[in-house]
Design goal:
single chain; 204 residues; mainly alpha; Arc Repressor Mutant, subunit A; Tetracycline Repressor, domain 2; 2 domains; 0% strand; elongated
Length: 204
């Protein structure tokens, strides 16, 4: 029996059970507005007692913030450093990975990057994700140990991240950009930053 067909009520290790609840929450928060999703709904979807949601995540809001964090934060398994090949090939793989990730949970990703009103906690998570992404990109291009002009480089990566979100929205919402066009935009822009812009900043 595959894992997809196994009953949700089977005994799981704590990390696996927590992940199961989180996956169900990601799906529900993407399908329905935040106020219409209850912890009872999430527990029913995950096949667990509602108390387990409180045990692993706290309140519904705490769980929602964890969903936002999962949607916007680059995980350690991302291909930025693991994928071999030329710089162009690594950038291509990274952009493909990102677009696959967005497509897998497109509705929830839109909710996460859009926030819920003016929510200070969501804004903090988004800002933390951008800061982490800035360091990951500099690591990806071999500038981890660079200190001179580092904050300027990180600011440029954060600006690129804002464009990534905007381009992702254009694609997911079906406005004017196809996936191939978004891929071209993101990969070429990042390559230009790495090959042309970063060296000029460091040289000044």
């Amino acid at each position: 029996m595959s894992s997809a067909s196994e009953p949700r009520w089977r005994r799981l290790e704590p990390d696996a059970r927590r992940e199961q609840i989180l996956v169900c929450a990601i799906r529900l928060f993407g399908e329905r507005p935040y106020p219409s999703v209850s912890t009872t709904d999430i527990a029913g979807e995950a096949g667990v007692a509602r108390g387990l949601i409180n045990h692993y995540f706290g309140t519904k809001r705490d769980l929602y913030l964890e969903v936002v964090r999962r949607m916007v934060t680059i995980p350690s398994s991302a291909p930025q450093t693991a994928h071999p090949g030329t710089l162009e090939e690594r950038i291509d793989a990274s952009v493909s990975w990102f677009l696959d990730r967005v497509l897998r949970h497109s509705k929830t990703w839109l909710v996460a990057v859009g926030g819920v009103g003016h929510d200070a906690d969501v804004e903090r998570i988004l800002a933390e994700a951008d800061e982490y992404a800035a360091d990951r990109v500099l690591e990806f291009v071999g500038l981890t140990e660079v200190h001179e002009h580092r904050e300027q480089l990180r600011a440029m990566v954060r600006a690129y991240a804002a464009m990534v979100k905007a381009a992702g929205r254009e694609w997911v919402m079906g406005n004017h950009l196809s996936r191939d066009q978004v891929h071209l935009l993101l990969s070429h822009t990042l390559l230009t930053l790495v090959r042309d812009t970063f060296p000029q900043v460091r040289a000044r």
